[in-house]
Amino acid sequence: MAVISLVAGCSAGALAAGALVTVLNDYRATHRHVAVEVIEKAAIVANVTWQGESGVRHSAWVRHPLDHISDDHARIWLDREGHPAPRPPGPTEITFGFLLSGLLTGWSAWLTLSRLRLLRHWWVAKKAVRKLDAQWRDLINEHRSPPDAPQ
Question: How far apart are CA 117 and CA 24, in angstroms?
Answer without folding.
Answer: 41
